[in-house]
Amino acid sequence: MGDATFPGAGWEGFIATRFVPLSDSQCQIDLIPDPQVPARCPRCRRPCSLIHDTTVRRIRDRDLFEYRVWLSVPIRRVRCVTCGVGREALSWLAPRSRLTHRLRQHVEVLLTLLPIKQIAELTGLHWHTLKSLDKARLARDLPEPDLGRVRYLVMDEFALFKGHRYASVVIDAETRQVLWVGEGRSREAIRPCFQWLGPHCEHIEAVAMDMNTAMDLEVQAWCPRARVVYDLFHVIAKFGREVIDRVRVDQANQLRHDKPARRAVKRSRWLLLRNPENLKGEQAGELKALLDLNQPLMTVYLMKAQLKELWYARTERAARWRWTRWFNMAQASGLAPLIRFARLLKPYAEGIIASAAHRLNTSVLEGMNNRIKVIKRMAYGYRDSDYFFLKIKAAFPGNPR
Fold first, then answer.
1. Cα angle: 86, vertex 88, 92; to 5 degrees
2. How many whole angstroms separate alpha carbon 5 and alpha carbon 17?
3. Each residue of 105-155: pLDDT tens digit?
4. Which residues of the chain carry a pLDDT beneath 50?
5. Domain residue limits, the chain
6. Pair type for strands 152-161 and 165-172
7. Which residues pair with 32 in a beta bridge?
8. Residue 106: how many other CB atoms lie within 10 Å
9. Other Cβ atoms closer than 10 A to 204
10. What is the SS3 assignment for 93?
């Protein structure tokens, strides 16, 4: 096209002189310095009339109609009498950047709405470029937690990749803000969280978690006032796996000569694990018939219900009495899986009893884990764990106190 000038197009200090179509979907706009606007020193921001040298740089701007816009920009290095030589400061372009502020702002809005893969197809920008923009945005915009007001924590783990690789997450139980995320679930992996909390560890009163010994020991080492509270869901799930399933399999093996009875026991797993209020249709009748005919299954089923009651005690004294009664009943049951489980659970009894004083659980984190899976699925997985952890923190900024 012929030469023309387009002042006021958003490129302060420059004038557009030519619009050149490069293809059906791309164009180039040539810029020249505006003689009425002096270049400025990048350090002191003072006008500089001495130009050291000039380099033409190709810059992406926001799309114009159906065109992807490229700018041909002569970037000058100025010689400041105070600061020396430096590349001129531009209000619409960050140092060393190949994207205008206008395009960056547009992309940042898209990043809050769409997966990176779709934005890459829409804008023509590389996946890594978009990831860098998003990572910088998240680090800039994430709200700083008020650690001085944190009193209760919830800790849990989630699968990071396939192959038993995990990450640990810590939230403020009151605001539900994700405070910290780190790769691994060992004591060494969790320790940076408490190092980051620093003196605020003194204010922590209780921490909810599953029966992860590494988390337990690290809390005791860093938070002298904090009480560990073990989550009901994890303990009952462990009881289902290690006691109910084991007794059910043993009973099925003893009934190998009675095929109908053996089949009924083998297929009863979900009847035994499901809460009574969640049974549908004839399932309640099937469960009653099964328990009436099989005393060991009846015992472990009732012991599961009694174990749950420990978390609903009104006082620690009542919880301790319930625990002692439950433990003695388990030892007197004569069922090896139940006896073994009760003995393994005994060192964790104080964390169960503490639930009477601190009504904490990890159920909120279980819900968060589902959303974390969605975040991971939308991106088809993350190769940068730090970026993934920033996405998690941004998804759970917390509620006002």
1. 140
2. 5
3. 999 999 988 888 899 999 999 989 999 999 999 999 998 899 999 999 999
4. 1-8
5. 1-98, 100-141, 149-231+361-395, 232-356
6. antiparallel
7. 15
8. 16
9. 20
10. strand
Q: How far apart are CA 290 and CA 300, in angstroms?
A: 13
Tokens encoding 2:
């012929």
* Contact indicator for 92, 100 with CB cutoff of 8 Å: yes
What b/e string do you get for 26-64 counting C-beta neighbours within 10 Å, with b at 16 or more?
ebbbbbebeeeeebbbbeeeeebeeeeeeeeeebbbbbe
Give the bridge partners for 57, in sequence order.
73
149-231+361-395 architecture in CATH? 2-Layer Sandwich (3.30)
Q: Of all helices (H) and strands (E), which one includes residue 196?
A: helix 187-197
CA distance 291 to 296: 8
**What is the C-alpha to C-alpha distance for residues 297 and 282, in angstroms, rounded to an integer?**
19
160 Cβ contact list (under 8 Å, min separation 6): 166, 167, 183, 385, 388
Burial class (CB in 10 A: 0-12, 13-18, 19+), 230: buried
Q: What is the pLDDT of residues 94-116, one digit of tens each?
A: 998 999 999 999 999 999 888 88
Among 52, 57, 114, 116, smallest CA distance to 87 is for 52
What is the phi/psi pair of residue 84, to 5°?
90, -155
The type of residue at 103 is L
- The string over 79-92, giving b where at least 16 C-beta atoms fall within 10 Å of a residue's C-beta and e elsewhere, is ebeeeeebbbbbeb
The model carries a pTM of: 0.80
CB neighbour list of residue 195: distance below 8 Å, 6 or more residues apart: none
pLDDT for res 348: 94
User: Helix 295-308 crosses helix 245-254 at what angle (to 10 degrees)?
Assistant: 170
Residues near 383 by Cβ (< 8 Å), separated by ≥ 6? none
Q: Is 231 left (phi over 0), alpha (psi -120 to 50) or beta?
A: beta
Alpha-carbon distances, residue 378 vs 91, 161, 218, 372 (angstroms): 35, 15, 34, 10
pLDDT of residue 2: 45
Cα of first residue to Cα of last residue in the chain, in angstroms, is: 60
State the angle between helix axes of 259-266 and 283-293 in degrees (0 to 180), rounded to the nearest 10. 120
